[in-house]
TrEMBL record:
Name of the protein in question: GTP-binding protein YjiA
Lineage start: Bacteria, Pseudomonadati, Pseudomonadota, Alphaproteobacteria, Hyphomicrobiales
Reactions the enzyme catalyzes: GTP + H2O = GDP + phosphate + H(+)
Pfam families, sorted: cobW (PF02492), CobW_C (PF07683)
Top-rank taxon: Bacteria
SUPFAM superfamilies, A to Z: Hypothetical protein YjiA, C-terminal domain, P-loop containing nucleoside triphosphate hydrolases
Single GO cellular component term: cytoplasm
Amino acid sequence: MQAQILPVPILLVAGFLGAGKTTVVNHLLAHAEGRRIAAVVNDFGAINIDAELIAGSSDGVVSLSNGCICCTLEGDLIRTLATLLRRDPRPEFIVIETSGIADPSDIVRNLMDPVIWKEAPLETVLCVVDATQPPAALNDALLRSQLRAADVVALSKVDLADAGARAAMREAIRTQRPAAVVVDANHGEVPAALLFPIDPDRMPEPRDVTPRRPATDRFETLSWTSDRRIVLPRLQQAIGKLAPKLARAKGLFETVEQPGRLTVFQLAGGRATLAAGGAPTPGVPRTRIVFIAEMGALSRAEIDAVMQGCVEAG
């Protein structure tokens, strides 16, 4: 008798640029507790920095870059899911991390495809929200769409927000999405019981989908690479010049001050952070940075002019 093939539930992780989605997915994969989890990571740009920052898992990470899976890469997403479902052994769960500019309702619409739904039903939509942002930030049309799709809302960076700010953000979230469960995601931790089904035989209910809205290009990415190492004080000055025009920036680079080791750079919500990374990969540029800005706010020539002054002399 042939064994029953169980469906593979999907967890969709959404959230605005720099909200902390990768940190949540990293924590989930690092604490898989024996679950076979496949991760699909969509970074808006030609260089998928987020995929490199995702922790290893038993079923690996699939990268979808240079486009957004809510529109230009939707066919790639369906093909990727079909490929994952043909793996032997099959993953037990699939996590999809969207880009920060993705509207989850468009992705949900694609996941309602009857062929995909039968084998990989959408179980949970998790929206990550930066707790340090003012509640008025949720008035942004894209953030509202991300919240409206959410079953669970995870407040990130709660250690950087005081109790009053957290309470105000929670109230603003409840106003826009009363049905969602709101939790603090300290260092990316979200209870797995809120994300994955307890009963593997239970199929979730199909979701209502809203009519597709016309796509509008709001953000653009400008990638910058170099085979030379970065001089850290110069980079800090350069980011200070570019930051007022940036919605988000992230990258990996080797510095003159610490040769032989990568540094992870993140800029979100006006805050820049640096963290230790792994060893450089042979054949890959030493410096890879992605800048995300409103359309027309920043030119490639401006980035090139500023960044060229950050590298070591040839």
